[in-house]
Structures are given as C-alpha cells and as structure tokens.
Amino acid sequence: MLNFASDYTEGCHPKVLEALVRSNMEQLTGYGTDAYTESAKEKIRDFIGCPEAEIFFLTGGTQTNQTVIDTTLRMYEGVVSAQSGHVNCHEAGAIEYTGHKVMTLPSHEGKMDAGELDSMVQGFYADSDHDHMVFPGMVYISHPTEYGTLYTKSELKAISEVCKKWNLPLFLDGARLGYGLTSKTTDVTVKDIAGLTDVFYIGGTKVGALCGEAIVYPGGNAPRQMVTLIKQHGALLAKGRLNGVQFDALFTDGLYTEIAGNAIERAEELKKVFTDRGYRFFIDSPTNQQFIIMPKKTLSVLDAAGVIYSTWEPYDKDNMVVRFCTSWATTKEQIEALAKILV
Amino acid sequence: MLNFASDYTEGCHPKVLEALVRSNMEQLTGYGTDAYTESAKEKIRDFIGCPEAEIFFLTGGTQTNQTVIDTTLRMYEGVVSAQSGHVNCHEAGAIEYTGHKVMTLPSHEGKMDAGELDSMVQGFYADSDHDHMVFPGMVYISHPTEYGTLYTKSELKAISEVCKKWNLPLFLDGARLGYGLTSKTTDVTVKDIAGLTDVFYIGGTKVGALCGEAIVYPGGNAPRQMVTLIKQHGALLAKGRLNGVQFDALFTDGLYTEIAGNAIERAEELKKVFTDRGYRFFIDSPTNQQFIIMPKKTLSVLDAAGVIYSTWEPYDKDNMVVRFCTSWATTKEQIEALAKILV
Amino acid sequence: MLNFASDYTEGCHPKVLEALVRSNMEQLTGYGTDAYTESAKEKIRDFIGCPEAEIFFLTGGTQTNQTVIDTTLRMYEGVVSAQSGHVNCHEAGAIEYTGHKVMTLPSHEGKMDAGELDSMVQGFYADSDHDHMVFPGMVYISHPTEYGTLYTKSELKAISEVCKKWNLPLFLDGARLGYGLTSKTTDVTVKDIAGLTDVFYIGGTKVGALCGEAIVYPGGNAPRQMVTLIKQHGALLAKGRLNGVQFDALFTDGLYTEIAGNAIERAEELKKVFTDRGYRFFIDSPTNQQFIIMPKKTLSVLDAAGVIYSTWEPYDKDNMVVRFCTSWATTKEQIEALAKILV
Amino acid sequence: MLNFASDYTEGCHPKVLEALVRSNMEQLTGYGTDAYTESAKEKIRDFIGCPEAEIFFLTGGTQTNQTVIDTTLRMYEGVVSAQSGHVNCHEAGAIEYTGHKVMTLPSHEGKMDAGELDSMVQGFYADSDHDHMVFPGMVYISHPTEYGTLYTKSELKAISEVCKKWNLPLFLDGARLGYGLTSKTTDVTVKDIAGLTDVFYIGGTKVGALCGEAIVYPGGNAPRQMVTLIKQHGALLAKGRLNGVQFDALFTDGLYTEIAGNAIERAEELKKVFTDRGYRFFIDSPTNQQFIIMPKKTLSVLDAAGVIYSTWEPYDKDNMVVRFCTSWATTKEQIEALAKILV
Q1: Looking at the complex, does the CB of residue C320 fall below 8 Å from at least one CB of chain A?
Q2: Is residue B343 over pLDDT 90?
Q3: Is C93 part of the contact surface with chain D (CB cutoff 8 Å)?
Q4: A26 CB near a chain B CB, below 8 Å?
Q5: Which residue in chain A is spatially nearest to C102 when comparing CA positions?
Q6: In this complex, which chains have at least 3 CB pairs below 8 Å with chain D?
Q7: How far does B203 lie from chain D, in Å, by closest CA?
Q8: C71 φ, ψ (degrees, to nearest 5)
Q9: Contact predicate C140/C111, CB 8 Å
Q10: D282 Cβ contact list (under 8 Å, min separation 6)
Q11: Which residues of B touch C135 (CB under 8 A)?
C-alpha cells in the first residue's frame, strides 16, 4: 500500500517519539509551565531570531486559528482571508462561531493579492455607510497555502505594508510552515515571516509531531491574559508537556527543517515522475502538496494497485484533480514504487 | 523529591506509551476514523455494557465540558451545577463563553443534593416570570467530585430520577472516573453510570494517558453532526489516532481499572500515614485526592524536605488545607518516604 | 426641501399616531400580552390567510433578522443569502455575532437564483469533506430586495421547492413588504408568501410605523420558548403595546396596503419624470426605491435646489448611481416640484 | 379598576406624546443623527453636569444592560452583580448569551456591599489558580434596586473606590433612576452618579416614555465604534427620532424630575395607607416600588375589588409578599380609592 493521502498519516518523527519516551516518567508541572515547554520556546525564539517573542502551544490548526483570530479582533471586526482560506472553507464555521465574519478576497492559486486587499479596505472606509458594516480587523494568510503555493518575499512585504497602512494585524497560518521554508524556490525565511507578521504559527501536527502548533507573537505582543483566553477556548492542555517535549525535540539540532526538507526532496521526485509521464499539474506547487489533473482511467489503475491519494475536485468529464502529499516520512522507495505503477 | 501535587505530573502509563511506539509508523486515516479509535470505542462499549453507545474522543477536560454542554443545551437553557463544580469555578468561563449560564446549587462536599435540585426546578416553573429567566436545561455533576468525594448509588439514582422528572439530560464529568470506580467504599459501577446518565466522560489525562477524554452517549443519543460540532469547537484532532491508540491501550486487559486501583491503594496508605500521626482531614475522601488540615509549621518541614503538594485554601490562622494526590504512577516507596519525613 | 433619501424620514402615518394617542392612557399589561397586540395578531392572521400563524413583534429589521436566523439555525449551520443581502452587507456582522456564517450566492439585481441555490447545496453534500464545513441551514431572501426588485411567483416557488428538497427553512425579509405587495407588476400576494416560506416578517418601520416588525410563522411553527429567546436577544419591549397599537392600526381597514400603494403611485410618477427627461435607470425597480444613473452635474443642480437623495455607488467617471425613495408620506406635489427642478 | 402592577402600564407622559405628535411629519435623518436626538443629548449633558459625556439611546433595559456590559468587558472577564441583580435573574441569560459570566455577591435588600466586593476581588487575585478563573471585569449595580432600595452617597462612594482600586468600571442601571433621584430620603444626586460611575443609564420606559434608555458615558469614555456595536447587537433604531424626541421632551423644563416626583408623592401616600392600617413592609423602600406582606385573605378582598398588584414571593403560610408600584401617572384619587377598599 502506498499512501499519499495526506501529511498526517503517520504518528510522529522517531526522534520526537524518543523524546516523549525519554521524558515520560519525569514529574512535571502542568499547563505549559514545565521545563521542556520553556526550552522549546527558547529554541523557537532562536530559530526565528526574536528573543522577545511570546509563544503558546496549542493542539491543532483549527483551534489555533480560532483562538488567535478571536483574541486579536475587536468585537466589531472581521478577518480578511482569501476565498480559499482554511478559516473560510474547512473549519466548520469555527471563526463565525466566535462571533466574527470571515471577509473574503479572490484567491489566486490560494494567495491573496496585496492590491486587492488595499482596495477592499479603502473601499470600506470610503463607503459612507461603513459604520453599519463589519470592519476589516486583521488579515489571515496561509503559507504554504491550501494549494501548496507560497508567497514570494516581495508579495509578503506588499501585504505587510498594506496591513501596516490600515493598522491591520497580519496573521500567517503555518500549519505546513516547514514545507514552505524548505521549498527549493522560496526566498522567504522564517525570520522574514517573524519580521513581516504580527502573529504566526509553526505547525507541528503536519510536520513531525503527534499534535501541536506553536503560536508566535514575534514582538512579545500577545493579548493580555493569553493563558486564560486559551483555557476559555478549551485549548489549554493539562499535560502541556505533550506539546513542549515534542517541540523541544523538533527544534533541537535542526530537526524541523531537516524533516521538512525530506518531504520537499520527495515532492520534487514525485513531480518528476508525473512530468516525465506527461501528466499535467492543476497548480504549480513548490511544496509537499501536488495537485495533478488525472484521467479517470489512471485513477482506476492506481486504485487497483492500492495507491491512496486525495480526490480534490472534478476537472472535466474525463479528469479529476487529485492531491498527492509527501511528508517527513515519505521514502525514495515509495516514490519509485509509484513510478513503476504509473509506468 | 516527592511530588504529590496532582495526578497529571507524569507522562502516560508505560503500556500506553508502548502502544504509541508500536503503532507510530503505521499510516492511518485522520480525524478519528482509524482502526485504533474504532477498537477503543468497541472496548469501551464492552466496559460499560452499552453496545449502542456513541463515543467521541476529545483532548482535555474543559474542552469536553464545554463541547458537551454547549451541544446539549437549547439556546435559552443553562446548566445546573454544584457551586463547587469545575465548570463553575475553574474553566475560565468556558461555559458562559458558549452563551450559557451555569446555575448553581449548594455544594455538599462537592456534591449536589437531589432534593435541592428538585426544589430549584420546581421553583423555577412555579415562578410566573420564568419566561424571563434562564431555563434549567441539563445537570452537571462530577464523580469523583472536585473534593474527591463520590456519589452513592442511591444518591445518583435520586438525581437521575429528578432529571427524568423534569426532562433534564444528566451529564457526569468523569475526569477522574477510574479513581471513583476503584474506590474501596463505592457501590457505583460504570454500568450504573451508563444507565443513570445521558452522557458522561471517561477521563484519560488524569488516569494514565498523555491527553484524551472519552465522551460516551450510552444510548447512542449524541447530538446530530457531532463531528462537525467538535470541529467547530476547535476540538477535533487531525491525528485522532493519538487519542485512539491511548484509549485502546487503556481498555485492553483491564489496564484502566488496574492503574486507577493503584492510586487508590496508595491513597489508602497515605490516609493511614496521616491518620496515624494525628492529622485531621478537611474532607473524608475515598479517592485519590486527599485534603488534609495541615499546621503551617509542618508545611515548612515538608517544603524543606522537597515534598510537593497543592495548597487548597486557608483553614485558620495556623493551618492550611492542602491536597495530596496519588496516581497510577505513585509507588509504595514514595508513601513510605513521606511517612519518614512526617515522623 | 425635497427629501427622497429614504422611506424612514417621517414619523408614523397619522392614523397610526392617532391610535397611539387614543390608547395612551389605558393601563395595559407588558411584554406583548396586551389586547392591542392580540388584536394586531388576529388582523395579520386574516390578512395572510393563516389562522394558525404565530406572530411576534420586534422593534427593527437587523434585530429581527438576527433573532429569526439565530433561533432557526442549528449550531453547525449557516444561512444562505444573495451576496447583496442585508444580512451579509449592512448589519455590522449581527448574524456572525450570533455564531453563524452567512453563505453567499451571486446576486441577480438583488435576487437569488433557485438553480444556483440547488447547485450549491448539492455541491455541499457531494463534497466528501462536508463534515468539516458549515452546513447550509436556511435560506434568506428579501422581497423587495435591497435593489427594490421583486421575485415573481414562479421564482419564489422555485426557491421554495429547492428549500423543501433540502429541508431548508425559507425566511423572507419583508422590511419593505408593503411596497412589494402593491407594486404594479407583481404577481405575488401575501398569501403566496405565507404559503411558500417558513417564516417572514412584515416591516412596519419603513411602511408607516415609528418602529416595529411583525415576525410571522405561518404554520404556527415558531421555535420553542420564543418569548424567552426574544428576551435573551435584548429584543423584548416592556411596553409591547408600542408595537401592538401601531400594527393594529396598520392592519385596520387596509391601511397598510393603502399607504404602501401611495408610495408605489408616487414611484411610478417619479419614474416617468426621470424617463421623460432621458435619464437611465441602474436597475428596473417596480417598487418604491428607484436607482438612477445620474450625471454629476445634475447632482450639483439637485444639491443646489435642496433635493435630498442617497448616493449609492460610482457608475463611471461622469455618473453616480443614486437612490430616490418614495414612501407612504410622499405627495404628488413633491414629485411635481422635483420635475420642475430637473426641467 | 385600580392597577398598581407596575410602572409601565401606561403609554407615555402627555407632554412626551405631544412632542411626538408635533414632530411627526418632519423629515429627519435616521439612526440617531437627527436634531432632536442631538438636543436631547445636550439637555442630558446639562442635567448631569458633564459637557463631555457621550450618550446613546437604546430601546429597553435588558438590551441596554447586554450592550453596555458586553462592550465594556474584555473577553476573559465577567460582571460582578448582587445576587438579586436584574442581569442575574430576569434577563433570560442575556449577559451569558454574549459570552460573559455574571459573578454574584450577596444581596442586602438588593444592594451590594463595598467590603464584600473588595474581599471578592482580593480573594480572586490571591488565588494562585486565578488564571483558570473568570476575572472580575466590571461592577453592575442598580439604583433604585430591584427592591426599590437606594444606595446612600457614602455607600456609592465606597463601591466606587473599590472599583477604582481594582480598576473595574462601575455601571449603574438606572431603569428607574428618576424615582431614585426624587426619593424623599436620598442624598444621591445625578451629578454624584455621573462622578462616581463609568457608565450609567437613565431609564425612559419606566419614567414617562413609550420606550428608550439613555446610556451615559460621563467622561466621554464610550467604547470605540459604539454605533457599530449597537447595530451589531440589533439595538440601533432606524427612526432614532423615536428615542430622541421622547428624551428631548423628558429633559425639557425639568419634566423627568417632575413626573418622577409625582410617583414618589403617591408612593408616600400609599405607604401611609398601608402603615395606618397596620400592614407590615417586606422591605423599607424609599421609592415607587412598595413591597408589602399581605395576608392572603386581604388579597381576596383586593382581587374582588379589581385591584391589580404584582405577586412577588410567598412569605409564610398565610401571607404573600406583593408589590405595589406608583408611577408618573398615578393619581391621588387612585390612592384614596385603594384606601377605601382596604378600610
């Protein structure tokens, strides 16, 4: 069986598991006050080059988006997202559940355009009725996006400038951040992200951990009483060590970057396999998610061979868009096995 | 160092860890659709004797209380709890955050009285203004309570009958359920609980897991679209296997009961240590949390010896109420070491 | 001064005022339990031909939309609206504030298309990930729309059928319902609306009252404990008589229809004034709101003459879209005066 | 028929009605931007002696409490109220609906004790677990209280000082403020209230208006974008003139004070009627609500004579606590007629 369905099919990276095993019988204080959590925070501060950063570990992506957005916005504000943003499409209304509108802009292969953002906000304030409307209150982008694409540094700077111009906090969803940072073509570093955003998160669940996302406020600009707010959102782990130990391992000796890099190597090989055989890509993705326009009869071949992938959307009568994911756990052998099946 | 501060100071029970290690590299589907999660559910159904039960795994206690209560109540209803209930005191307003009032009754060593519940609801409907008031919509009890006490079977039956009389779903918070079920003095079995409540949860975090609580709807009476609701509350793990594997291990070969039993054995020894030395108890607790009225000078001795406990509340000028917890991980040797320090 | 800015610039219709004056010193019970409120409900039941209808009087349009939608939807559901719907654009996020997403469809001159609605819901259920998405839970339409347009009976039937097919309650916002019912070109009666929707409201504020909207559940299908829910939403008037007396007057001897008819007569005259002078309409509106493409230099003439209108949106470099409203209070003389100014 | 059931049984004071009639056909701008609303605000600023005050008109008491509290509190905070506070008992959970806990202190004939407030907040911060608890975030008091009682100036000062000490905004619910200000025994002026609170409201509904409450931020300290927040809460009237005209009339030539004074005169006469006949009072109220311990057989006499009152609560086997209200509309003749019935 070859499973390319997603990047969260395995447990955690063996070194993360080892750290959990090693620390298991230590008695530690709860709610993220333990030494591993502190150490993890310190290592992340080094990684991003922000000694003042405030960091909080939550358990999953939707929870993180919900908690960050709800605690950043004022009551009368909404969050601006690309139409295709995870917060808009695939979080079961978790943002609206907290009382806030998701305000959408067109999606350009998953990305928001700085100019369109500027026009939207300008249009809002130019509207004489805007007191009766939802105020744009912050901006949400994902990097990599839901389509595996990446912002260039200049695109990110442009969005950041529009945000500063209109005084809108910029939040970057990094559920797959590792895969973005290690992409062959990116010119965006984590330090760029720390410098250009007001808050972002470093995803663990999809990059080597069993669970866990690290929210980072690069300037030490977390909301007041953030621990209380996390508790109120049902998002505070009693055994905070579970996140702390994992992130401590991920940020020891460059593990996070190394294992994300593996997914990128495999994704490049995967692209070559498809390209060599003449398959078309739905989107040109430089990260670990690859979207291929696949003839339905090829899908039958794959299904028969036990290859697992995600069905994305219909393309036309004869073709489907499907997603193949690599991860820290994908091996060269798996790619080669797939190549043989595809002939 | 002797740490009796809480029952969540260690990681997970070695057999749970072993299961995580063993399954780690298997590729499994996400969001709780994997085979371990299914197996865990099946074992829990056996354990409670309810083949029709619907079961959902969440990550922590406050999250579980918040999600269960918010999805059970109608919009105009509140949840009735003892004044000392965790949902009323120590969840940072997580229930009110979802729009519902916590309506309180007196706490009798942590417990609610069935008669007082009946009077409250009767008084509510007798009030000609009750359309302008919050309707009592469900009842929340914890077992063991926040003070380590337990309902007797007849107390539980009485509450359940009042609930049925007024058509109020009964929800039992079992964050420490294992310690309640294995108490020396209890006459309440898990099958009693399944028969007398509408929904309850079996706590994992405090009884051997790294995280995880199993919500049980004994009659298959979960709210519609419960998975969507869990997602909306930010409580759906992508790697649902993390909970599934742990609960599968906990409910294999009676592990859950066995390790909870260890905590009870140690708690009985601990009680004897204190009783033999003439200490008074603040509450007569039959479970793993022991509340002792401790002279401040004894506390200094303990502090000097590196013994860790929880400070509960001031008792009088010279004494404090402190809490000592045992757990699945507490050893006979630790109790003996404490005994020596207390002389 | 000629003021065509909106249909809520005056107080209330003289006969409504008379009823308030006449009843003012009567001592009546509060919260909508008085005899005038009962009488108003009975008259509305007659008007719509639904003897079983449940009726509730609220104070304003946004409050009504918020209360109806929040109490109709399940927690995991959103409301489907045309992009241009009032609930989506001009209610300051009042719907999202209650926890629900507004899900949008294209606006066709303010209207939703039944086919597009069907496709959207079909697409939702066809998506294998729909458990992670907001469920379409009800449909919101306005009649007249925000652009003054009206659904035909067959369009309304088509939407109603799609709603029935997918089990979605259909809610019609009738803030300006009177103007829709008395339009020269409509084939939709209030009885059609009562038969084809699950809930609608009859607007008072914009059709002759000082305040007040009548929510109608034609089949007696109001949510349980609706009075409590209205109170909880801050929408229950202590002196419910204020709404009751006004609606009683509006539905005595056909007043509501008569005064709405006046607005339509004046709107037809207004259209003629503009048409005769060669002005173009932005939208062909059969009700009391008229949207004209107006050269900026004409606007200067109007401004100088003290004519008041609403600026809608820029049309092109030289023209603006402006709105002229008539109401129950607009006179033939005012239209003639405008005609002289426009030459 | 003699109706003492409440102070909102009539419409509005004749002079208020006159103002509505007089202004009815004027064309005015919507949403509280009209000249009457401006004039009313200016007159209230004079009345309270705060030229910088920001003032907003809402429609009813629960709506006002809900909007003020929700927009003042931070997300992790609750509002502290006496157990008997309207927000805690009779608003159908309108406060919790907005996500906030009502935290209660003992009620002393409806009043909160400054010392108990101080102890509660001190205890909160002294609790090492307070990060897991709801933070006290503001204080709610009513004046007159739900039992007709009044704070003395020194009591009010003491509460205000505790609030300042802990940085808690103080909110005074003045649904019946007029009756408090004109009480024979009070030493509290409206200027005292403006000086000692952060926000309060002047009730119109129960003191001469058809509807309407004036929220006052004495120091111009309203939340940002208050109009948008009011709209979002469904509380913004399109015809804001309805509130504006009424409050403008109420604050012209001392009408508000004059008509509240009438209620107090009548209440004093009412007290004498009961006292002379040997009835006992449940509470010694100096305002327009009188609570009498009434033998059930007397109630039969009153019922037979068509006297209407409110039943409050059972007192003992033979007696009920009942409420008699006077208002701006109560006449000397009505009191005399009651006196004759009671003999």
Answers
A1: no
A2: no
A3: yes
A4: yes
A5: A101
A6: A, B, C
A7: 19
A8: -90, -10
A9: no
A10: D291, D292, D293, D312, D315, D321
A11: 225, 228
| Helix then strand then coil, % of chain A, to nearest 5 | 40, 20, 40
Q: How far apart are CA C212 and CA C40, in angstroms?
A: 12
Chain B CB within 8 Å of residue C232 CB: yes
**Contacts of residue D226, Cβ cutoff 8 Å, sequence gap at least 6:** D54, D56, D71
Taking only the tens place, the pLDDT of each residue in A219-256 is: 999 999 999 999 999 999 999 999 999 999 999 999 99
Which residues of chain B are within 8 Å of residue A206 when distances are taken between CB atoms? 238
Q: Compare CB distances from D229 to A75, A228, A229 and report the shortest one's residue.
A: A75
Asked if residue D149 has pLDDT above 80, the reply is yes
| Residue-range domain boundaries for chain A | 2-7+256-342, 14-254
Q: Do the Cβ atoms of C261 and C255 come closer than 8 Å?
A: no
Q: Is C252 on the interface with A (CB under 8 A)?
A: no
Asked if C92 and D235 come within 8 Å (Cβ–Cβ), the reply is: no
Which neighbouring-strand residues pair with C172?
C141, C200
State the nearest Cα–Cα gap between D161 and chain C, in angstroms. Answer: 31
Number of neighbouring beta carbons within 10 Å of residue C276: 10
CB contacts, 8 Å: A9 with chain B = 27-30
Chain C with chain D: Cβ pairs closer than 8 A: 143
Query: Residue D76 and residue A225: Cβ atoms within 8 Å?
Result: yes
Rounded-to-10 torsion of CA D42, D45, D49, D51: -80
Sheet with B54-58: list strands edge to edge.
Answer: B54-58, B213-217, B199-203, B170-173, B135-142, B77-82, B102-105
* Top-level class of domain A2-7+256-342: alpha beta
Say which CATH class A14-254 falls into: alpha beta
Contact C99 A100 (CB under 8 A): no
Which is it for strands C102-105 and C289-295: parallel, antiparallel or unpaired? unpaired
**pLDDT in 10s for each residue of chain C, 343 residues:** 799 999 999 999 999 999 999 999 999 999 999 999 999 999 999 999 999 999 999 999 999 999 999 999 999 999 999 999 999 999 999 999 999 999 999 999 999 999 999 999 999 999 999 999 999 999 999 999 999 999 999 999 999 999 999 999 999 999 999 999 999 999 999 999 999 999 999 999 999 999 999 999 999 999 999 999 999 999 999 999 999 999 999 999 999 999 999 999 999 999 999 999 999 999 999 999 999 999 999 999 999 999 999 999 899 999 999 999 999 999 999 999 999 999 7
CA distance D211 to C210: 11
Nearest partner of B196 among B222, B158, B140, B165, judged by Cα: B158
Rounded distance between C-alpha atoms, residue A222 and residue A68, angstroms = 9
**Is CATH 3.40.640.10 the classification given to domain D14-255?**
yes
How many contiguous H segments (helices) and E segments (strands) does chain D have? 14, 13
Nearest-CA distance C9 → chain D (Å): 5
pLDDT of res. C1: 79
Q: Which CATH superfamily is domain B2-7+258-342 in?
A: Aspartate Aminotransferase, domain 1 (3.90.1150.10)
**Which fold would CATH assign to domain D2-7+259-342?**
Aspartate Aminotransferase, domain 1 (3.90.1150)
Residues contacting residue C129 through CB under 8 Å, at least 6 positions apart: A90
> Could you give the CA distance from residue D172 to residue D107 in angstroms, rounded to a whole number?
16
Number of alpha carbons in the 13 Å side-chain half-sphere of residue A51? 0
Residue C230 is classified by DSSP as H
Distance from CA of B227 to the nearest CA of C (A): 7
Q: Which subunits have 3 or more CB–CB pairs within 8 Å of chain B?
A: A, C, D
The bridge status of strand C199-203 relative to strand C213-217 is: antiparallel
Distance CA C72, CA C169 (A): 8
Pick the residue of D28, D59, D68, D308 with the most C CBs within 10 A to test the interface with C by mutation: D59
